Amino acid sequence: xxxxxxxxxxxxxxxSSLGLRYLYANLGDLQSRARIREFIINxxxxxxxxxxxxxxxxxxxxxxxxxNIEQTREVIAILRRVRPDLIIIVGGPEVxxxxxxxxxxxxxxxxxxxxxxxxxxxLCTQRLAGESVEEKVVKPEPFKLADLAFPYPxxxxxxxxxxxxxxxxxxxxxxxCEFCLSALDKTAWPFDLDRFLEHMETLYQRGARxxxxxxxxxxxxxxxxxxxxxxxxxxxxxxxxxxxxxxxDHLPDQLKTMIQQFPPGTLQFxxxxxxxxxxxxxxxxxxxxxxxxxxxxxxxxxxxxxxxxTDLIMGLPGEDVASIARGFDRLVELNPHEIQVxxxxxxxxxxxxxxxDEYQLCFNPAPPxxxxxxxxIDFATMQRLSRFARYWDMIGNSGRxxxxxxxxxxxxxxxxxxxxxxxxxxxxxxxxxxxxPRLFRLIYQGAKxxxxxxxxxxxxxxxxxxxxxxxxxxxxxxxxxxSTSRKTGLxxxxxRHN
Length: 498
What we know:
Shape: globular
Radius of gyration: 25 Å
Number of helices: 17
């Protein structure tokens, strides 16, 4: 018998919802009357609704995030019309603030604001008992992390085989970066580390190998960071993969030494730089020592096997294109494996809204609420930057153009890639669904037209990238090179590998 269905729409199948598993783990006596149902955002809302209603639940709880709010709205609309008696409860970061403007505000029964780990269970108990609950917006009472049941036993065997296992050793964040909802936290609270590691051991014994830590500040408390890394270092084997988010300017020697012990393919660090402009950092309440951050990134890139995923944000209040370019070029020079170029988004409740008037921040009213223009960047330029970000992800971050990328970027990475981005859009009118063989042809053609490059050198680099990423046969981007040039290029490549 299923009285409660917990549901969310993930962005990809291999993602899993830690939030749903917290709710399920803390349902107490109601757990036997509940189940978790996860979908992905490209499934049809009507089919999702059909599967949810097949269980004939009395309550459906939906986790709502910036990436699934539009699809969730459609699911709610169908559920409400087919089952008017259904109790619909929503929660998650996208509904925790500014609830009255939610597109489904009138169609849901309750909105749980903030951390609903325990509040959801109380609400379900009341409603299933027939009690009247007057509050539309339920604000959970404060609780201690020690009061929570851990969610990790709720990962199924299918999850362990096919999905990332999301875990957290701490919750909250002590920093106040205004573009982030974590700016509203007072501090970071640690879970009992011994109990946490007991659950990690159980997951490991069950076969879990991909652990993604969602802690906002994994290296805030170094003693805990070391203990966690020691735990996994003792269990290194084929397939172990760990993801951590690091504060870029806080990397003491003990932690550096520990990181150096991990073999290739086991560690990924997400490092938020966001901006290298000190005035912008101060404006958005971001504390960061840029010189230390740069030194630490250089160390991680040159003296460890960790994969580095770094973040920049375009469209921050008071930052113009020249400042963005300087920050991008500085980060390219450090050569992390990935530079995620993001566009500022207006998350519901985030303090960034205090700058709207002074810096003329104009946000898209539809998800993902991306910045459209600012005092310093007009709409047309912001659109160019958005395309820059998309093409950079396809080319700069994909790992498929490692030999070609330095030729494209030269000594002015931002300026040159913006030129290539503009050319790609003018030529194709597309930023998505460009097949890889066609992308190779476009890059080759664009680089020849835009930049003063040795054609044979460009061909050699692109041919190596083409074959390295698994493409078969001769590439089609070399139409202007005759057969002698091709053979010369092939001979030079063979000589380099001897």
